[in-house]
UniProtKB/TrEMBL annotation:
Keywords: Hydrolase, Lipid degradation, Lipid metabolism, Membrane, Transmembrane, Transmembrane helix. The keyword Protein biosynthesis does not apply. One of its GO terms (biological process) is lipid catabolic process. It comes from the Eukaryota. It comes from Anopheles quadriannulatus. This is Mitochondrial cardiolipin hydrolase.
Length: 305
């Protein structure tokens, strides 16, 4: 074996051999240095902002310039991108909901990723012919409102992948923020329940949740097909503002949308959604969306946007 290797060893000890080895090492080291240079110059991934405000009739100029479709749908596509990343839950409180693209994204979240979807709406909009509520109901998504309510459910917000309060945490938060309800301060059904029907709240919302017992944090029953390359913040996001989810409301009106992962903003909206879920608890049926209740009983125009 030594006799076979001797010519090669002799060659690499010679001047030409040493030159080849040195050249090879130079090439390899140069390649390593170049790769390190490229890595150092690689722009850092922008840190996700914890709160952003968008004005509906303004656009961000991007390079390359967006197509007319992308330009028009900037805010709509932004909302859809958040819904597409939902893993656990979507809690939507919306006065008017006439955007087909957003409706389809919500339905995909439920059907393809087993996301829990809850919707609260307003009786005055139940008969809106452009509403996509009936499409959500057709997919067994629970939509609630208050029948013959004297007041509008006029909110426009959505919570994605936020925690759900149990009754104990909901009562504790409510009491911390607004004080213990008294006999003369029972403004709503929820106030009355905190005062005299805590058993009913426990039955509705349970006695333990991920907020007070992290071991209760739900695990996905359906395996993820592909891990999102841009996951939502750990405790979810809030999308809120003055815009109804209509085409003009998200493209041309003087409206705003705020997107935030700040707990200081998420927590009040999460508690408020559950308060509405308790009080505005008439389930909306498929046939009801075809009845112009707001016209026959209230004389209201359902064509708002």
């Amino acid at each position: 074996m030594d006799a076979v290797l001797q010519p090669f060893l002799s060659f690499f000890k010679s001047k030409p051999g040493k030159f080849i080895i040195a050249g090879g090492l130079l090439i390899v080291s140069s390649e390593i240095v170049y790769e390190l240079y490229l890595w150092a110059r690689k722009p850092a991934k922008p840190k996700q902002k914890s709160c952003e405000v968008f004005f509906i009739n303004r656009r961000k100029l991007a390079q390359p310039l967006p197509s007319p479709q992308e330009f028009t749908y900037e805010h709509i596509n932004r909302i859809i991108s958040y819904i597409n990343r939902a893993e656990k839950s979507i809690c939507l409180a919306m006065y008017i909901f006439t955007m087909r693209e957003i409706s389809e994204a919500v339905i995909r979240a439920k059907k393809e990723r087993s996301v829990v979807v809850r919707v609260v709406t307003c009786e005055s909009m139940v008969g809106n012919e452009g509403s996509y509520l009936r499409d959500l109901i057709a997919e067994d998504i629970k939509v609630q409102y208050k029948y013959k309510s004297e007041y509008l459910m006029h909110h426009k917000f959505c919570l994605i992948d936020t925690d759900w309060y149990c009754a104990n945490c909901l009562i504790e938060y409510h009491t911390e923020q607004y004080g213990e309800p008294t006999k003369n301060m029972q403004h709503t059904m929820f106030d009355k329940a905190v005062m005299s029907d805590r058993a009913g709240l426990l039955q509705r919302f349970g006695s333990s949740c991920a907020r007070c017992n992290p071991s209760n944090r739900p695990k996905q029953a359906v395996p993820r097909r592909k891990k999102s390359s841009d996951p939502l913040p750990k405790h979810g996001v809030l999308i809120a503002g003055s815009s109804n989810w209509t085409f003009p409301g998200l493209t041309t009106h003087w409206d705003t949308v705020t997107i935030s992962s700040l707990p200081e903003l998420i927590d009040p909206f999460a508690a408020e959604f559950q308060r509405m879920w308790y009080e505005l608890n008439d389930p909306l049926k498929q046939h009801a969306t075809r009845e112009p209740l707001y016209k026959t009983r209230r004389g209201m125009d359902g064509a708002h946007s």
